[in-house]
Amino acid sequence: MQALVLLMLLGSGFVPFFVDNGWLPGVLTLFPEMISAAATLLLLGVGVRTRFKDIDPAYVFGAAGLVLVMVFGAVANAVGSGPLISGARLTLRALPFFLIPAVYSFSEQQVRRQLLALMLVALVQLPIAVLQKRGEIYWGNTSGDFIEGTLGGSGTLSIFLISAACVLTAFFLRGRLSLSGWLVLLALCVAPTTINETKATFVLLPIGLVVTFWVAAERERRLAGALAGALSVVFLFGVLVPAYNFWAQARDLNNQSGRTITEFLTDPRALEDYMNFDSGKEGALVGRGAAYRMTAQEVSREPVMTGLGVGLGNASVSRLGEGFTGRFGRKYVPVMQTSMIRFVLELGVLGAGLILLLHWRFYRDARSVAADDPGFWGALGAGWAGVTAVIVVAAFYADLLISPAIAYPFMYFTGVLAAHRVRHALGAQPVAGLVAT
Q1: Residue 395: helix, strand or coil by DSSP?
Q2: Is residue 289 part of a domain?
Q3: In a domain, 52, yes or no
Q4: DSSP of 166-221
Q5: pTM of the model
Q6: In what helix (H) or strand (E) does residue 104 lie, and over which residues does it extend?
Q7: Which region among 183-187, 195-199, 214-218 has the lowest average model confidence (pLDDT)?
């Protein structure tokens, strides 16, 4: 089981990149589905023996409600089998890794090794990002849009690295990482965000670090912890803002459009142009503000669409071909830019609301583990509370489901903490292997 998890963590970070560069065969484009299929078989084999007893009932009810929304939405909109399969594949493919920790108890040492594997993925991003930046500059492009590391997207790269920064910060705050180690690793993780120019960094980084400081602090010192987190953000912004402005000004010198962070903060029209531009061309992306406005207009047309959306997979274009592309897939290409838009369009307000409630439960579990355990597990819980906050906000900015490097590790470590909290509440003694009580 440990080998499977390590393969998932490393493979989700590297395999798609290797396939895109022709270093691995194209069939491994389906690596996420392959690893999920293997996890499902193991999950069923082990889960039958343990009767899935360490799964929190709250997740069972939440998942059941979400399945009902998916079924009713598919029936109400007469979704074809192809789009339904494609939508379920994308939405649910990481779920087995959330459930595996509930039927197989990983030791602290094993989870440490898993975190080291994930840290390896994070640290490799800096040299890859630097090489990509050099390549873009060589061709006269100083934009950071194509600085993706091995993760398939500029925004994905920032979200992944900010999440890594939250975990590192929690381990430092809980005394599991030295000050020098934290500063060095934090710098290596944050450095790529200075050249990929993702504006969301200036929102996600403060949220992630402040929440991490808040949860990692003792109850009576949480306000001081949050203030310390804010000061850390101010320090990091002292590096990030000049770096962002430097590359934006370089684009102006090269007759490319570039706006500094200062302009976004001081010029309302700059932010308006960025958020609400509408190309007016079919198939061309619109600004995220315009995308949310258009999505709201679509789902408010009739009550069924408001509650249940247009059906799972019915608003998506599938790489598997036309037979798996939803009836409204081509129509919604310009607005299908974030996870939240996908949820609202395909699952309606009910489905999106249930997903947010599940994430609130993820956060509660992480915070509970952080409060109950002063050691390794508590540090992981505090860091993952920050990660969960980042993921929830990032769902309004990027489509996280299409990124295995985000979806798979997030669901797995969330499952680790959820299972740990249940076993702690039941008085179970976690050992490597099948759960012992």
Answers
A1: coil
A2: no
A3: yes
A4: HHHHHHHHTTSS-HHHHHHHHHHHHGGGGTS--TTHHHHHHHHHHHHHHHHS-GGG
A5: 0.90
A6: strand 104-105
A7: 195-199
